[in-house]
Design goal:
Strand content: 15-25%
Strand order of the largest sheet: 5-7-6-9-10-11
Number of helices: 5
Distance between the termini: 31 Å
Shape: globular
Structural class: alpha/beta
Largest sheet: 6 strands, mixed
Radius of gyration: 16 Å
CATH class of the largest domain: Alpha Beta
Number of strands: 11
CATH topology of the largest domain: Rossmann fold
Helix content: 10-25%
């Protein structure tokens, strides 16, 4: 019935639906495709890592990253069993925007943001995130993600870095939503991915 239909067909609307609503569309209403643009980042990651749909439609307006594209990493000296992973892509976010509830944990910062605020499909960013997650100390059991990524990079991070992370050794992944109002802090509670 809905095999050719797309969930979230309009990318100009912010789609704040529950995971259960997406599952109903996928499993019972037979939707096979979901547009990720306009879906909150935590929900994008949950949908992709759980394979909620057969096909995901990602950003149409993404540019190829410039050849000089770099992702800079700041690592902590010591790691706690829970690690905050702060990924700046389209624009920079800072540790000051994290909720107080996570400040006691080690924070790894990955920054690919640039002054032009363009949305890029960044191979360098994806490779860096994968490397960081795969090389976390074995004592790290939980990951908190704080991201300002476009839907292309979010999809690739979810598919290529996170979908296997829990199956390897990380027990829990939480993704935190950034607030819309300035100073655009992250909410105190993250969405549990697994």
């Amino acid at each position: 019935m809905n095999k050719e239909a797309v969930i979230n067909p309009d990318n100009n609307i912010y789609h704040e639906h529950s995971y259960i609503a997406y599952c109903i569309c996928s499993k019972f209403l037979d939707y096979k495709q979901c547009r990720l643009q306009g879906v909150p980042i935590p929900m994008q990651i949950k949908l992709v890592t759980n394979g909620a749909f057969e096909k995901f439609i990602i950003d149409d307006g993404i540019h190829a990253a410039p050849k000089k594209d770099k992702a800079r990493v700041t690592n902590p000296k010591n790691y706690t069993s829970t690690v905050n992973l702060l990924i700046s892509d389209t624009y920079k976010v800072t540790v000051q925007q994290l909720p107080r509830t996570v400040l006691q944990f080690s924070t790894v910062e990955i920054n690919r943001s640039s002054d032009d605020y363009m949305r890029y499909n960044s191979e360098e960013l994806i490779k860096t995130v994968i490397s960081i997650i795969r090389n976390l100390p074995k004592t790290v059991m939980e990951l908190n993600l704080f991201m300002t990524t476009n839907s292309t990079n979010t999809y690739r991070i979810a598919k290529e870095a996170l979908a296997t992370a829990g199956r390897d050794r990380i027990s829990h992944i939480y993704v935190f939503q950034q607030e819309r109002e300035e100073p655009r802090n992250f909410e105190a509670k993250g969405l549990k991915i697994f």
